[in-house]
């Protein structure tokens, strides 16, 4: 929670804050990458008083953890998320809302609007959205990561010469036939030539 009492309600009043907060639970992209619960989140915030409420602008910095989508190795990545949000005064409707707005528009605005309660506002939902947008959907340990072998799972960065002899699936059925022929030729080489004894008798 952040306190706006010192800022006052005089339009144009400014206040700057620097604060470190503990990351809440599930602060990131579930199962992909995120800031661990309790890890420090460094905040630099600017509060500006306006007619309707307080305009909050700032940057959140933290270290996210996850795993590389290519090789599954652990990934640590610094993340910086910028945000800006308006927190409205509860009584701002009388003076801050356009008289030409339709009732349906008002209802939609109320759903998205964040409010100041007793001079306090909760920044967590805003930070959560900003951090999620700043995180990579497919984190990698490095851009050149070669990933894992699709056949045996070996890490290709550690075995750059690793490969499997690929067989065109269209010829796979003939592969067995070739091996059978080779085996038959080998048997004939190991055994005597059927006509050899007749030649020796002559």
Helix content bin: 10-25%
Query: What portion of the residues fall into strands of 2 or more residues?
Result: 25-35%
Roughly how many Å is the radius of gyration? Answer: 34 Å
Alpha-beta content class: alpha+beta
Summed up, the helix count is 5
Oligomer status: single chain
Please, could you describe this protein's structure?
- It is a single chain.
- This protein has 5 helices and 9 strands.
- It is of the alpha+beta class and 202 residues long.
- The strands form 2 sheets. Strands 2, 3, 4, 5, 6, 7 and 8 form a 7-stranded mixed β-sheet that branches. A two-stranded antiparallel sheet has the order 1-9.
- It is elongated.
Write the layout of secondary structure elements.
Elements lengths: L1 E2 L10 E9 L4 E3 L3 E3 L4 E10 L3 E15 L6 E15 L4 H4 L6 H10 L1 E2 L4 E2 L2 H11 L37 H19 L5 H6 L1
Parallel strand pairs: 7-8
Antiparallel strand pairs: 1-9, 2-5, 3-4, 4-6, 5-6, 6-7
């Amino acid at each position: 929670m952040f306190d706006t009492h010192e800022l006052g309600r005089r339009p144009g009043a400014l206040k700057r804050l620097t604060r470190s907060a503990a990351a809440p639970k599930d602060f990131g992209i579930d199962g992909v990458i995120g800031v661990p619960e309790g890890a420090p989140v460094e905040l630099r915030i600017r509060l500006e008083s306006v007619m309707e409420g307080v305009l909050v602008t700032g940057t959140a910095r933290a270290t996210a953890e996850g795993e590389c989508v290519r090789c599954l190795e652990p990934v640590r990545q610094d993340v910086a998320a910028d945000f800006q949000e308006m927190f409205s005064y509860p009584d701002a409707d009388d003076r801050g809302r356009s008289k030409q707005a339709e009732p349906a528009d008002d209802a939609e605005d109320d759903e998205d609007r964040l409010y100041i309660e007793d001079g306090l506002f909760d920044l967590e939902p805003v930070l959560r959205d900003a951090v999620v947008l700043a995180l990579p959907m497919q984190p990698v340990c490095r851009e050149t990561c070669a990933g894992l072998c699709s056949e045996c799972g070996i890490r290709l960065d550690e075995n750059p010469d690793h490969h499997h002899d690929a067989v065109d699936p269209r010829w796979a059925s003939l592969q067995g036939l070739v091996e059978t022929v080779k085996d038959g030729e080998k048997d004939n080489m190991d055994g005597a030539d059927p006509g050899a004894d007749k030649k020796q008798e002559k």
